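Dear Dr. H.,

I hope your travels went smoothly. While you were away I took the liberty of generating a structure for the chain from your last submission, since the lab meeting agenda had it listed for discussion. I wanted you to have the full record in hand beforehand rather than looking at slides cold. The sequence, exactly as received, is reproduced here:
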Amino acid sequence: MRFACKLPFWAMFLIVFIICNHVYDSTASAETILTKNELLQNEKASREEKETKLLVSYKKGTNLDKHINKTFMKDKKSFKNLNIDVITFDNHADKEKVMKELKRNKAIQSIEENTTRQLFSLPNDPYTKQQGYIEKLELPYTWDLMKAKATHEVVVAVLDTGLDIKHEDLQGVIAPGSYNFIDNSSQVYDLNGHGTAVSGIIAANTNNGIGISGVAGNSKVKILPLQIAYSDGVIYQEDVLKAIDYAIDNNVDIMNMSFGGETSSTLEQEAIKKAVSHGIMIVASAGNEGDTRYMYPASYDGVISVGAIDKSNNLFSFSNKNDKVDIVADGSVISTGLNGSYSQWEGTSFSAPIVSGIVSLYKEIDSTLTPSKISNIIESTAIDLGKTGKDNLYGYGLINPKASVAYLVHPNPIQPNVEQVGDNDVTIKGKSINIGFQIIASVSGKTIGSSNIKDDGSFLISIPIQKAGTTISVIVKNDGVESVPLSIKVTDKTPPTMPNVGAITNMTTTVLGQAEANSTVKVKNGKTVIKSATVSSTGSFYLTVPPQSVNTNLSIIATDRAGNNSQSKMIKVSKETVFEEKQAVVLGNNVNILNGYLPQNKVVGTLKDREAVKVIDLKNGYYRVIGSNSRGWVHHSHLLVIPKNIIYYGNVSASTTSLRNGFKDHNKVIATLNNNEPLTIIETKEGYHRVISSYSRGWVKATDVKVTLNPLPYPIKSGFVKTNQAEMKNGYMPWNSVIGHLQKDDSVKIIDLKMGYYRVITNGGKRGWIHFSNIR
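The corresponding predicted structure, in token form, is as follows:
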């Protein structure tokens, strides 16, 4: 459960659970047990004082004393390594007035209130889970691999709630110099448990027969607790800056920051930049808001921002998602707790120390590693999760200590980390740990591009455009030694062409057009989707839509299977003043005809599937129709209104039917058509289709024809020859020349139909026309 409370506007708070009764100071000589109430009283006094402070940076060579109204100023202190002063005012000072006065002065570079940060934790008791990430990350193998090379001592500063220094599993791992910035003393304690848990993840003793295993608990890594958070998780900006300054002065190797806030601070950013310039690697939590917000310090340049995943490598819902996330690690842990206990925690607060612990292993092997080199190692060796390459959910992926430590111990070529490649890309981008080595891309064994890995670990390979679905193999090579190939599949990034659609009036209920085959077409009014449909394999589509008001602006957009969107086809609905008679085909069997255009009107008849009807009016979304045996009103969704000059295909559905020389029952019969005979439908009128059959043309009852609803072009399909020595001609008329013969069961692709002849392509690539009776 999360709680929030209102404080002065320059403060942000997160309440976390307090799970201890007594704590201990950090000095070896002092064994005095302090009560929780005593420490809370000290906290209260400390907090009241911090809320009266301002943080000021100024241009070099400027004497700040000359530029401040000292009427209400009680104290001014400077940092040793940072160009910042902390100014304390008494309770009667008008802070806003003082800030305005300072901002007007050109000698002042920056001025900020003493705002707060917050811890990123989600306590979850009782604990039942184990340290799954130890096995997942293959840490025992990593520890064995680096034994001979782990010769350097490493100090990790943990800026947090302090530490339970009496905990059995943290004995011998605490570096000298711990400091409490809450009380301004060397006596470190922990009223919250957060800092103790973070420290245990990094360096709790391993193989001591008790408790848990720290990521770097079997090594020369020490924890330097820097207590900056109050018992309720609140952290003042002043204390963050003090701790960074202190860490620089004490030559720490790594700083772990499992806290943050939404507000970016120029002073904090400059302090972090200063720490990085001193070779300190900074690791911070991405945040637990579960959205795309940037949290600081994690989102500053030079900081490794860590997100949280579960045991199945899925991103936790609480983990922040943005382009500043660099890496992920497990966010549900069991760790050291207060009073010698062990407890379960969740949050990005506990993903960060896993990464800090792994970074400390790197520094054990090579103490000269710079923050930029460490970042490259982390990014280049990560196990890619989510989309190919870096993404906003997982960053570069799951941290991979096995691969990264293996490289530091034996620097051979290893798989690179490659960004997603699309079918319109002409480069392959990525990161590699193997600086200076060659990187090669190939398709089916043929090299399509190569390059050398730059000093920052990045690479850029120029390649020709590849088709979507193509598999590209990428290797790193040096002195004849190659990495394991990395296979990446080219994705579809090419958007579909804009749909082709005709005019739409206020009486239109059928939208027909062409778009990319198998894409999804949507008709939208603003952001509202009116109707959508899947485009056929031949690139045609139709949708039945409710009548739209005159001057409505509609957009028609196509989305392909890869999620790429076309440009929108914009159409303004025009006015059709007098309803023009139309022809339509019924969609569905036993469709009700009503005696009016309201849903409650009486049913007076039914229509059959694919039956042709005449449409003579439109009201309230209902068409007035004339069918073969009845007339009345039918809802628009049950009719496919056929636009003029659109050609359709169909087949005879009756056992036999008469072909007439007109569209009336009394017209002369000129031929008899058999079941399944293919027809080209060129017109519909009064319940009859005008068709082109195998040898003639005329009018057929619409109820005897099954219409293929997709208009031209012809829907390509496969077929087989029914007889031996079937003639293939160079045209679709009986007198066309024979150009070859096909045998029974030969496979063909059917690409067109005219005058009862199929146009086919054989397996051998030959093309021609075969009478429909010879194809099944």
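Two observations you may find useful: The CA atoms of residues 276 and 371 lie 7 Å apart. The longest strand covers residues 471-478.

With kind regards,
E. W.
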